[in-house]
Amino acid sequence: LFRRSVRLAASRAELEHQASHDALTGLANRNFFAIRLASTLANAAADQRHCILFVDLDRFKMVNDTFGHPVGDRLIMMAAARMRDLLPKSLIARVGGDEFNILLSDADAHNVDEIARNIVAAVRAPFEIDTVQIAIGASVGAAVTTGPCDPVELTRKADIALYHAKAAGRNTHAIFGSHMDELLSDRRALEAD
């Protein structure tokens, strides 16, 4: 009975891990990230800073098309490992094929520019897979908040910043500023006209 309960507890823990983590990288998945983000932002102190980073791998589709999906999967795992090495205390999630979200806590949220630059540099360094050097890049969008915040709004801002980083030529980063919202509003008005 004791051995059965131990096996049952281990199975339950494994199932919970699988439900909240990405099978390929071992990082958090989209759902787990959203839950933790909402909880963290709802319970933030008035002077506590948080930042969310959206990271998108540049030229990843080309790698899949050229070398195949198994090499693409290994590249995703290696890119995830580099981000984990850079930010061991931060919550990192794989939220899509080549998309990652990172939640920076108070201490790291003050160094957003440096952290974003480090992520771009880490992913830009060539990956060696089966003696082949593969070079990709990363675009990073960041949004910073102080105190409690709506996670949907912070996520929207990080997404807009990522769009600006990609529009700037990729392999770079952008931190959300109010001017980005104005540009988006102007574009919407232009499209409506």
CA(first)-CA(last) distance: 72 Å
**pLDDT averaged residue by residue:** 89
Tertiary shape? globular
Q: Strands of the largest sheet, in order across it?
A: 2-3-1-6-7
- Contiguous runs where pLDDT drops below 50 for at least 5 residues: none
Short précis:
The chain is an alpha+beta fold. Helices cover 55% and strands 20% of the residues.
Summarize the structure in words.
It is a single chain. This protein is α+β, with helices and mostly antiparallel strands and 193 residues long. Helices cover 55% and strands 20% of the residues. The chain has helices at 2-20, 30-42, 60-67, 69-86, 106-109, 112-124, 151-167, 178-192; strands at residues 49-58, 91-94, 99-104, 127-129, 132-134, 137-146, 173-175. The strands form 2 sheets. A 5-stranded mixed beta sheet has the order 2-3-1-6-7, sandwiched between helices. Strands 4-5 form a two-stranded antiparallel sheet. Helix 3 packs antiparallel against helix 4 (69-86) and helix 4 runs antiparallel to helix 6 (112-124). It starts with a helix and ends with a helix.
